[in-house]
Structure formats: C-alpha cells, structure tokens
Protein 1
Amino acid sequence: MSLLRFTAADLVKAPSGRDARRRRADRFMRGIMFVTAAIAVVPLIGLILYIITNGLPFLTSQLIVNSPLDIEPGISNAIIGSLQLTIASIILAAPVGIAGGVYLNEFASPRVSSAGELLIDVMLGTPSIIAGLFAFLVVVPALGFSGYAAIVALSVLMIPIVMRTTQEVIRLVPAGVREASLALGIPVWKTTIFVTCRTAASGLLTGVVLAVSRGLGETAPLLLTAKGTNDTEILNFGSTMNAMPIVIYRYSSSPDSLLIGQAWATALVLLVIALTLNVLVRFRTVNNRVA
Amino acid sequence: MAITKENRFGFGRGIRVDALFRILFGSAVVVAGILLAGVVLSMVVSSLPVWNIQTPLSFVFGDRWAGEVTQPDGSVVGNYGAFAVIWGTVVSALIAILIAAPVGILAAVYLVEFAPRRLAAPLTFLVELMAAIPSVVIGLWAAGDLSIRLRDSVEWWVASTLGRIFPWLAEDPEAPAAQSVFRAGMVLAIMIIPMVVAISREVIRSVPQSLREGFIGMGATRWETIRHVVLPAARVGLTGAVLLALGRAVGETIAVTMVIGNAEGIPSSLFLPGQTIASKIASNYAEASTPTETGALAALGICLFAVTFLLSLAIRLLVRRAARGGGQAS
C-alpha cells in the first residue's frame, strides 16, 4: 500500500529554494510520523516489561493455588471467581448476542435493522461503570453485592460485542449459500442455523472470545457488584465474589508490600490471559482475510 | 417467502417453526433493548430523590459535593454539585484527545503510507495488542511507573517554564503532587491511541490509490500528497475515529481512578489531583447508604451516559452522511 518509492519531487537534482524547502518538509514530516508510530508502541513495551519485572518474583505456585486466608496467601479464589463470572455471563450473553445479530441481518426490515444497529452502537459506547451502576442500582438492592449482580453488569457489556461481531460475519456469508439451501426445501430456521451460522462459525467464536476477554478484564462493574471477598466458596453467586481485576485494584493501594507484589503478579496473569486470547482471535481473522 | 398454505409434504409445520424461530431470534434484540432501557430507567428512577431536594441546574453547575444540608428551618436541601467532576472529566478527556488524535492519525498514516511491509505488520499488531490490555493493568503500570516518569519529565519541565506564567500549569517543584489530572489525561491518551490508529488505518487505506498517484504525478512530495489529498479524503472517517476515542476517554474508570487522585473540587492547576464522573462513582458507591446519596451517583451516571449517547449519535450521523455520498470518505 506504500506509495511509489520515488516521487518526481525526489528526482529533481540538487533542488534549490522552494523545492529544497518542500523536500525538507517531506523528510521532517516523515520523521515526525515515524516518531508518532513509535509513541504508539513504546508504552506497550514499557508496560509489559514493568509488569513482568515486578510481577514475576511474586508469581509462585502458592499464589495460584492458595486462597487469601491461607498462611501463605494466594489468589486462587480470584482466579476461580473470574472464571465463574465470565463463563456465567457469556452463557447468558452469547445466545442473546448471536441470535440478535442473526436476526438483524437475516430477518429484520431495514428500519428495524437500522434501529438495532443504533442500539448496538449506543450499548457499545456505554462506559463499563454505567453497566456496573445499573446492576448496583437494580440488582444489589434486591440480592445484595453478589455474583448475580456482576453477571448482569458483565452481560450488558458483552451482548453488544457479540451482536456486532455476529452481524459483521453473518453479512459476509454469500447469499448463494442460503439460497442453495432454501432451494432444497430446507426450512429457514434450519438454513439459518446449519448453513448460515455454520459457515460463519469461526467468526461467531471470535465475537464470543472478544466478549470473554472484555469480561475478564473489567474492573469497575465488578467493584460495584461482586465487591471482592476472601471467601473461597465455588458457585456461590448469591454472595460477594472475588475476581482478578478486583484483587489488582484493591491490593495495589494496600500498604503491605506482599499484597502489592501479589497485585503485580495477578496483573501478569491477567495480562498473559488477555494477550493470549487477543492473539488467538487475531490469527483467526488474519487467516480469514487471506483466504 | 410467499409460501402460505399448508400442504401434505409437511412444509406447513416448517413454516410455523420458522415463524417461532424468527420471534425467538427477534426477542434477543428486544432483550438487548430492554437492558439498555433498564440502564437508563434505573438511573433516572434512582436519581429522583435528588431532584426532590435540588434542581438539575444546581446539580450540574454546583461546584461543591457537600451532600444534604439541613436548613435552619428544618427543611433538607440537596447540595450535590457535579461541576468539579464534570470539569475533571472534560479536561482529562481533552488532554487525552489532544494528544491521541494527532499521534494516532499520523501513526496510522505512517503505517499505511511509509512503513515497509516488514515493519508495518508487527507495528500494527503491537498497537492493536495495546487495546486488549485490561484497564486495571494499565492503571497499575500507570500509577507505579508511568505517572512518576511523567511527573519528573514533562510535568516538571512544563511547570518550571510555562508554569511560571500560567497558574493553571504551576506545580510546587519541591513537593509535586502524587497524582494529577494531567497524568490521568496522559494515561487516557495512551489507552485511546490504539483505537485512533486502528480506525484511522482502515479509513486511510480506503482512500483510492489513484488519487495519490495523480497528485504525485504532478510533482508533489509524499507529505504534500498526504496533507492535500489523503487526509482531506479521509476527513469524515478520521473524525469518527476521534469521536469514538473521545467516548472511550470520557467513560474510562479504573485506570483514571488509580492516577487522578480523587480529590474534591476543581484543582487550581492541571498538575494537581482531581476527579472525573466515572472515578467519583467508583470511589463513592461504597459509602452511598441513603436514597439521596445513591441518587446523586445515579445522577452522575445520567450525565456520563448522556455524553456517550450523544457521541454515539454524532458518529452515526457522520457515518450515514458519508455513506450517502455527502462526505468525502469513500
């Protein structure tokens, strides 16, 4: 995509006056643009190095295996809590998101479809703290700070992600595939599930993975709902629950240097998970684009 | 589908199932709509107790968050002023966007127009990876590392030069504040740059190659081509990218909470701690016990939601105008 290697302006020999100025401006701006690209990347490298150097010494097997109440405290309940909350939320959000995305693309009239897209846009633009506030105002008064409230908050954030991705990949399924199936007398619902969705399956999975990765990393909505706890009970969504982002946030402001170290180590774990999920998704998309 | 009559091949059953199927899938959209409506309604309803004791105008423009005040005559008056947190939100988001927009757009231009393919692919990959990092991890790094570096470099330099002239850029060189609005803005900038780069890249790539070739053929340098052809052609899309990033900056919570200092009131200088709407909600929800205290936080939520909602609408109008051919984006 880059431009021709030389432009006519470059070929003028020993330019003087105006042309020299133009050439200098060109070089200068090229330098500036290179610097901006570097600025966009340097923070990532700094962040990764910082989290690794500070987190690695504290990343022991006790940290992963033990609970905060053990003699050698760990964050096992936060890891399990994060998994439970994310899985429970995606079980709710994925069907709604996929079904909604499919409906908007396959069945909705243009008017409904455009309204639906506006709905997705607005939901995608809604800050995560607002989703947390929603669960805090609606679910917490009824059930208290609980896993259920956290699931509601996370679902609000996940549904539009799944829906948007679904919509985008379903749009790419060639019309001929559907028409061939319908021409064989296969009902619309079978065609939609076993032909259209099947063709786009890897794309649908991408949306789900993106939503999972968002859910694992969210902090603010969890603080307002699951709140964090030292309890280690599993599948107890009715009470407060722990999660990795909560641990990072709470421990980072603690005066205890062990806890601060654990915050870094937890951040390292979370970072590795988030980056792995993202790289997985990206490899898929790149492959699809090439194919 | 014009098939309406049942027949003996059992197609009728299939059509009834189809109808059910559509209703089922359509209801998913309805569920999403109900959730969004619930988000808005829950905040509006919860904020009602606040409007009983004070006006929305005094909420938005009041500069002190003082809670309820009992008047001498026994009546209770609300004294929730959100102006300081709104100020903090606007200022930190502005700092972020003023840095992220030029940096992100120029970086995208570099990636598309100049970077050799061997460099462009890994750079793009790294930039997009940054967007995947959870904000609490960015906050942890920002609070422990970046914010101190910024304090000792940019902030110190600006404060000791411009700060002598403008009081809103001043800082005590002996005892710089542990947290500041400026640093929050910088962290936000770093968080939204990947977003600006990713969208700008797509937009710039979609500018037809022939436009560039035509201009270069007339003897223009590459920078002149970008300045006079590529950027104007991509204007609408780039505006959309910046608005989207602005929405993200306005709503970002945890990373900001970890570096902005959460101090009440409007700071006299950018290098002093402040507060944003999101960080206020995140740091105050635990103490909210009465309906009015919760209601005041819900009212803050309404302000924040209104801003992001308007941004979403603006982006949509922009994209629609561009699609209709009114804009110059192709």
Protein 2
Amino acid sequence: MKRKISVKHWLGLILALSFLVSPLSWQPLQAQKKKQLSPGGYHGEMDFPLSWKRYYSYAEWTKIMHDLQKKYPHLADIQSIGRSRMGRDQYLMTITAKSTGKAESKPAIWVDGAIHGNEVNGITCSLYLIWYLLTRYDYDPYVHELVNNCTFYVLPGFNVDANDSFVRFPNTPNNPREPFRPEDNDGDGLYDEDRTEDVDGDGELSVMYVEDPHGEYKLSPDKRRFIPVTDEREEVQRFRRIGPEGYDNDGDGLINEDDIGGPDPNRNFPYGWNLQAGNPYPLSEPCTRNVYEFQLAHPNIMVTFHYHNIGRLIMFQAPPDVGAKTMSSEERQRYQQMVQERLAELRKTNKYAQLFDRQVAPEYQHDMDVQTQIVTMGARILKNYRPVIAGLVGQHPASTYYMLGAYSYLIELWGSPDFDADENGDGRVSEEEYLKWIDIELTGEGWIMPHKVKHPDLGEVWIGGTPRKHLRRTPPWRYIEQEALKNTHFVLYCASQLPRVEIKEVDVEPVTQDLYWIKVTVVNDRVYPTSSDRAVQLKRAVKDKITFRHSGNIKPLKMSGGTAVLDFQNPQARFTIIPPQGAEFRLKGKDTQRFCVLVQMKGSPGWVEFTVKSKMGGTAVKKITLKK
Amino acid sequence: MIFQRQRETGKSLRLGFWLTLCLLIAPLLIAAPVQKVPISFDRYHGYTGTVDYLKKVARAYPNLTSLLEIGRSTLGRPIYVLVVSKMKTGTTIDAHVTLRNMRKEGVKNVPPMKPYQGKPGHWICGATHGNEFTGTEVCLYIIDQLVSKYGQDKTITQLVDDITFYICPIVNPDGVYNSVEKSLPQRQNSELKDDDGDGRVNEDGYDDLNGDGYITLFRYKDPQGQYVIDDQDPRLMVRLKKGEKTNKTRYSVIREDKDNDGDGRRGEDPERGIDLNRNFPEGWFKDNGFPGGSGDYPTSAPETRAIAEFFTNHRNILMAQFYHTSGGFTFRPLGTAPHTRLHPKDVAVFDFIMGKKYLEIIGEKIPEAWLHPERLNEFREKLKKTSKNKYAIQRGYELPRGWRVSYNEEKDRRYAYGMATDWAYLQYGLYSITTELWNPVKDLKDFPKIKDTASRLELERALLKYQDEKYRGKYFLPWKKFRHPELGEGEIGGWLPGYRNNAWPGEPLREVCEKHWQFELYRATLLPHVVITKATAKVLYSGSGGTAQAEKKNDTFTIKKTSAGSKVKIIEVTAVIENQGKLATHVARGASLAGNREDAVWLIGDRDKIRFLQGTPFQILGVLEGTMKIPGYQAGRVSLERSTTSRRFSRRFMMRPGYPMGMMFFRRRGPDRVDQPGPRRTVKWLVAVEGNPPLKIVVTSQKGGTYVKTITY
C-alpha cells in the first residue's frame, strides 16, 4: 500500500453519485386515480353499496363475493378450493393488484372466518375486509399500496355447511359448530338421530321447561326469565328445565342427545392432533383438508388470521416454551415476576404494551419478539382485545405456524357488551344489566318471552327466557361493522409490516487509486422478517440473496467470503464479503445488514449494480457509476 | 411381459409343474367343485389382473360379495375392497328404530348402514408397499377360498354367514402397477410432484436401458465404487463395508437409469412418491415436534386417507391384517412406541393366542413361557439374569423371531414413524398385525441349509443356486455388456425385480397363501358374536285400560273413570345377551376410543303404545367378554377398564354442544347401564303396553354384531 489514498478527493464525487442514483422502490407504484386524503372525503364506499347490518346466508355472501369480483376483476380472483361434506363450494378470494405482479409472487396474508359453524361473525368480518380493500383501492393510498404489494387470500366461510345452517335455521348460540360427519354422541348405535327442533315454530331455538311442583326454577319478577328457586319454602309456580327445544326423535326418552356433529374442525389439524379431540384422523373433514392443501401449495403465505367468536382475544402462536422444561419452579416464579415488573414499567408509557411469560430457545427469539410487537399493536388497534398465546391441540393456527412457518393469529371476535351495559362499573355484566342493554341499546330487540306450547312427547311445555340468535355469541347487527372495521385495520397493519428489502445506501471507499471497497447496506424496515424462525427450522425458508454485476473494466477480487472489518475504529461493524456467486442471508424484522466487495477498476467510467432478491421481501436493485 | 418370458424358457419345467399342480388341485376340486371364477397362482396378478378377478368374483357371487371402490390413487386408479359376507344375513340398528318429528332443515349426512356392517369385521389387505405384492396374492387366495368353499366347508360357510371380510388386495395401485405391470419396483405410491423443482413433473425416473421389459441393475467399473464381485458366485455383487480396502476391481451398481432431462442427474424426479406405511396418524411426528413420517401430513396420501375413511365408516372391523414382505414373520404392535402402551390383556391375546397359533403354522418353536403362562413370574425372574431387554423382563419372555414387534426394545428406539398397524390398534382398537410374507429358506421346498442365517450374502448365493437348478435361472438376468450413455461400458443384469422379495409363483406362492389363509381363518374364528339367547315377557297385569282420576277426601281416595281405552298390560321383559365368540367385543381399551362405543341393547315397539316404567329404551351393556379364557392374564384389571370407559362416556355426554351458554354442565339422566361382568348380561325392562304391539329386542355391538329377537307375550 504505497500509494497514498486521496479520500477527500473522491468523497465529493461519491456524494454526488449517491444523489444521482434515485431510490428504487421494490414494486413500481402506479398513480392512484382518485386519491382521497381528507378523513372526511369520499372513499369509495358507495361504489359497491353493501349493508353491514345483518348476517348473510351462504347463497347471499357467495353472491356478494362473485359480484365484487366482477366489479373489480383487476384486483380480485375467486376460486373454489374444494367442496364441503354436503357439496358446497368453499370460495376463496385472492386480492392483489394484478398489474404489479402475480399473487403467488407477493407475500401473502391468509384470512378465514367461521371454522366453527356458529361463529358466523367471522364471515362478515372477512367479507368486510374484502369489501374494504376493493372499494377503497382507488381512493385510499394506504390500501392502494398494500393491495399493490401483498396478496390477501380470504376465505370468508370455512365450515360452509354449518355456517349456512346457523344463519338460516333455528339454532342455539353453540350449534351447529362442527362439520356434518355422522357421530354417535350417546352410544346407542345411531348417528345424529336426535337433533334440535324449533318446537314453537318461532324461528328461534330457546330452552324448554315444564311445570313441576318440585322443579328448581321459577319465573323472574318481570316474567322474562327462568331463575333458580333459592328459598325452598317459597310458594311459587315451579319449573323443571328440559333443555334446548326439540323432540325425542328416536324414542329413547332423551331429547336432543345426539345432535348433528362430528369432530371440532379446529382440533382436526395435524399439529398436536389427538384422537379424542380431533377424531377420526387429521384433516379428515373435506373443509379442513381443502384449506390445508391450499396453504401447503402457497408458500408465499406469511401471516394467517382465523376468526372465531367470542371473547375478544388475539390468540397468537408463539415458539415452544423451553423455560417450562428447563427452569425450576423457583426460577420460573422469579422469571414470571420479572416479566410482570418489566411489563408494569412499559405500561407506564404505553397502556397497550405487551410482554409474555414465555422463554424460548435462542433460535426462536426473533419470532417471539416479532409476535410481541405485532400483538402490542393489535391490542391498540382492537382496544379491548387481549393478546394471549394460543393452544397447540390440533388447532389450525398451530399447524400454520408449527408446520408451515407462518405467523398466525386466532381472533376471538366480540364478547360481553360491558362497554355499553356495565352500569355499575364492576367490569361485569349481570343478567339485569344485560336485559337493560337489550331494552336500551338494542331497543328491546332480541328476547324470547317465556310462553306455553304443546309438545308431542312432553305435553305442555314452556319455552323462552333466553336471548334470540345473534345476541350472545355473534354480535347483534348494530355492532357488526364496528367489530369488522377495527379487525380489518389490524389485518392491514400486519400487511403493512410484511417484509420489504431495500438497498439503503451504497458507499465507496478507495483503498488505492484503482482498488475500492464498495459497501452496500440492505434494510428491512418492517416488523416481519423475510422468513420466520420456525420456517428456518422447518427448512421451508428461502434465503435472501445479494448478487452484483459490473462493467467490463471492473474486476472484483476473488475472495472466498466471510466478513471484513472496514472501519478500524469499530471492529464490531462487520461487512459480509459478497463472493462472485452472490451471498445468501436472512433479513430479520427491523434489520440492517452490510455487505462489501473489493473491486479493481481500470480506466473510467465503470459501474456496479447490486440486486437483492427475497422471496417474501421482494427485489431491490441499485446501480452506481464510478468515475476517475 | 414377464410371463411370456417364463414360458419361452421353461417348457419342460412347465409341463412338470402343471402335473404337480393338477395333483395338488385335484383333491381341492373334489371338495370344492364350485370355483366359478378359476384362479391360478402361477403368475402374479398385478393391478390389472387383480381388478379383473375382483370384478369377476363380484359378478359371479352377488349373494356373497360386494365390490366397493373406497378411493382412488394419485394417478386415479381405483382402490377396491371386496366385501365377502352372506349378503342376506345381518342387520343394523338403524333399520329398527323409527325416527319421528325430525328437524325440518333435513340435512342428510347419515347414509343408511349396510347389513354386513352389523357383523364382526375382518380386514385383510396387501401391497401397501407396491413392490410387496405377495400380500395381494394371499388376499386373492383367501377370496377364492371363501367364495368357492361356501356351502361346502362348514366352518367357512358359518364364517361367511356370521362375519364380514373386507379384503383389499391392493392398497397402493400405482405402486403395484409399476412393480408388476411395468417391472419397475416401487415401494411408494406415485405422486405428481416436481421433486427437483425444474417445473416439470416426474420427468426423470428409472429407465429400461436395454429394452428387455425389466428395470434391473447396471454395474460398471469405478475406482470409487462400493461393490466387488463375489468370489463364489461372480453374478453377485458384494457391498464393501465403510472404509474396507480391497485389491479386487471396484464396481458401482445402480438401477437401470439415465439422465432423461439433461440436468446432469439421474432419476431425480421419478414417479414414486411417499411411503404409505409412514403416512398414518400414529407417531407421525418426532418427539421434537417436527415431522418424522412421510408426506406433508398424516393421511396426506389419497391411499392412506381411503383406508382411514373406510375404517372410520366400518366400525365393525376388529381384526386387521396388513400384509407386507418379506421375512416370514409377523409384527404385532407396536413399532412407534414401546410395548408398554399395550394393555396386558391385549398382549396376552396377541402373544398367547394369535402368536402361538402363528408359530405353529409356520413351524417355529413356541417360547416356553407361552406354553406355561401360569409360570410367568418364574420366567421373569430367570430373564432378569439373562436379558438386557427390560420389556422382555416385564413380559416374562423374549419375543420369538416369527412373532415380534418392530420397536427396538433393547435400544429403546422406535422403528419408524406413522405406521398402519400401530395406528389401527391404538386409534381404532383393532387386533392389527403385519405379516411379512415369504421366507425363501422355509417356503422353498428342499432349500439347502444355510450356515449363517443372518448373512444376506449366504442367502443370495443359495437362492441363486436354487433358482438355477429348479427354475432354470429365470429369476436372475445374467450380466450382459451394455454401453451406458453417460457412464460408458458396463453390464446390465441381476435379479428380476419382484422376485427378490416376493414368494415365487407356483407351488411356493401357493404354500405361502395356504399357510396365511389358515392363520387368518383361525383369527376369524376368534371374533366376538353377540346374540340374544333368551327373551321372555312376563305379563304382570292385564286389564281394561282407560284413564281414571283419584279424588282425595281426607284420607279417602275415590277413583273415577274419565275415559275408556283399549287393553293395557304390564310386562316384565327379560333378555339374556351373550357373546358366544371367543374374544371380547373390544380390545382392552377399545370402547373408550373416540368413535367406538360400548355394546347396547334396545327394546323397540310402537312408541305411542309403550311406556317404560323401568329400564330406559336402550341400555348400555359395557364390553361383553369372550368365552375364551385369556391365558397369562389376570382379570383383576377389568374394573380399571370399565371406569375409564364410563368416565369418558359421561364427560362426552354432559359437555355436548347444544346447550345455551352458561348451562354447559346441565345434568340429565342418561341411559341405564347394565354392570355385569363376563360374556353374559341379563337385562330387564318393565313396560306398560296398550293393546298388543309387537316388541323386539335389538342388541347392537359395534364389533360383536347386531342381533334381533321378537318377543311374544
């Protein structure tokens, strides 16, 4: 190194050069036609008018999907991923701007609703997401960019047979929940032979009581409910509880003891599957198998959402707990205390802050950090929703994370109407407060008064004293959109955090007059990494890769790779040397990685072009010119 | 193709062969003159031949058989199950209970059951691995025996009347088709998968380089090769041990194959897919939560799923046999987990009953302990001194060669992940076994004694010599020079695929079939058989009926007639239900598995005319024991079994969805339970009947059959 390096001389030129190189975005954005920036302006809602004040039957919501697709063919595709047990198509909508690339080439978010037949709120929520994305694409710059850069796979109704039954026929809030695989619940050798029936023909499935001088129930003073008799000596008309409305179909003396059923579809997925919960075998149900096969075939799915009711929970998947195995109970206690203290500290400045009692292996720490960041924002966007770590027993999200490496969230929509109904502020809604809520907020809509009916097996029965459908598990119409809107926002937030690789800067540091280090900084400023820790462990992750090309007069020095220290004052800041075939790496969330090449240039000018390719984070290209 | 070749090479052999065949078959013909669909075992049937035979049998014996397509392979070939059972006998509970006031929605998700589903079921299948098609032949042999001896042989006639055989000769149609029809050995199923990620599917598999119709081997000189020529028989290639040095010429040996897509690799994207016997849901995951079995998830293969779905919908199956090759022994459960997951009672059934019979049939020594189960403790003490196998010590005996588990008990290591036999036992409660058919040393007549039985090379030498002498060398293709497009000069030759690990057609195959048919025949006779041996009705009261009211005045009641009515009787109905079969109606923990249930009995009549005063219309009987005393098992544990079962039942019953929220634990009275031990139950009802409605008792046991008896009174 005899030649003197004239750093100052080059510095000006390099600065000038870096101005010349315009920042290339990862996907070419197109001009937005009807951009609306005013929060009070028109955002496209009436381009496709749709009521969010009711629940839709299968025929209706699938028609809405098809109509939306027809109206926005450049953004949406519709396909049947298979058929349910009873032969209904499971329609899936793929949303992405076709002009910016194929759906499979972009990182994707999966959203499904109502895997449990009765939790049809998931249908409205995912349908709302579709509608929101499509109608706002032209108006809303936030939506516009997300639809350009990511893919949304939305399956509004998962368990379509039970979904349709729940919406169209009289049902309790808890039924039908499962796909319709025949099951013998009572062990009498017959399958699904004693189902519920709407005895009084009012379109609702309430509870039956019979008059019985020794019964345990009486009518409440307002005659709206059946309440337990607390004082044995009280002289009052008493009732015995029979159970949900229905007949004894098979003549065994029991009513509704073998309702339509089958395995819980959310225990039917392969990861953590067990026979008693998820029988008869993993993915035995057409609806679950179709979904999983689709997800297997679409490795670009990075995030999955699964809508359920109820409880207002963000149940996210976290890496395995190693602390539980390795720590003593004392250590465990200390750790839990530490978590609580740190959380209290964090909450002083952000009441939505989250921290979880889970110690994970070092190779999974990033997944844990990513999930914590995401659900912290989720807690803020969804307000009264509580993030918790989800279960592993054959649940769908467990398989999407543990077998496919996608970040998964099971959202328990809706819950107690305490925000409106809790009069005394004790955090709970008593029966009285609940009834008041029905009277005031729901203007009296939704209660079945006890009434007498003739029953072929029981003689005279009383039916009623319960809310109508869509009150307890699924929100009444007045609350549908409020729930759907904030959940759509959370999905969009996650989409906005899908990885994006950028070449932040390229710098040149001459060693001699014709030998230069070229330094490249690659950045992912999103929360999600280009592949999850779990995907890496599963060997499903595709690595990111940086390569470079150069003009003929430039010759890179052949080096086998490894890292180099370029700043001698800071030996920690290492640069990865890019070998001629390129370097593979993995960009985590909010991650910066530095690379370098040592090149020799003869004559002038010359150019070097760097390309970063990431399966999930897109492609970034940057070219610089060198002049002597 | 194969068979043409055989005919060319062995004319005189063929003649002698036919003569012996005639002599062998002659007595059979006399005993069974009604072989409406003739079948020979002088050649392998392959997929096409098997399907053809099944269809012919189904056509010829409509009263005894029913052909079901239970699914399709990846490439769309149907998977068939032939049901063999007297179609006119048998009944199921759904044919007797009339349902009324049904939900208006009218979802029709429950298909009516077939009468044969009301009999105990015996599943026999072959060729889960496509290249192990001896099992297919055994299945066809069993079908032939059952249908052609029905009406001739008393035992068989009774079995076909009383039980249902589900015979699936080919679980893996694509594997068998390739292995037999195309002479391309394929253990796995086929999969339309782009293995090498080049955008094309299955474009580079094995190739018949010399165009002789077989995929054999190609050997070529290679200084890095791992093989040398055997000193004793230059046709055999001997694999060198790791790091072993040699002065001999080194060879590499590959299957006949070339690079079809020009990517520099051979056979990197073949049609073969996944191993079906690693695709079942039991023990598919490793302990660390990563997949251990084959396929993307358990039952991902259409073939595996077809089996799982069939077992789910045919809960009457209690016996199951999954034939594989080779070795001439049987694997009883388990392979994915240690033996301790088996209930001791099932261990006794497997080893002392089935295992003993199996060893008798294949002519191997029966362990001392099996002959003297009462001395098990003594044997345990002895083993403590000699054995390192803790499971053997626990049992009191080492498992013999011929009847064993695939779990490595000494190293405490599982054999593989996701195997069918374990799955069928642990999740469906079946007496499932896997017989590895074909042990040439035993199954070939006059086969010379081998000094070192563990040595594969010794066996190969002897086999080669044997087939030279007795089969004119037709199963081994002599090495012939061939110029490989990529590897240059070398030779093609070796065992014809299919004959290395399958019973050789003709007498050896027939022997294998006969032995294993005898074993399955024995297992079929163990099946439970639930019947109503006695049903009586005692009329306690017979009167005019009508309605009346009692009016109370002080302590005096005055009865007043309110309306007239038809005659009323109070009847005490007593039924004695018995399991006359040898084994209980479930394996030890079988009734508690999801999808299985305990035995139950119904009293059925016109609902509007019967009132149940005592006893619920259907009553739960628990699990009916068999008539056979299980050797080596103390019945002290029965109470434990029952308690686990009933706990499960009540929980499922109470927590069913269908109740409004907050009322999930609402209690109600379930059906009565008849808690009596042993194979017999006495059940009583007290009913009030109006008029003379017919009454019938239907006992319904999932695996012990459904039986109906009408009562007169």
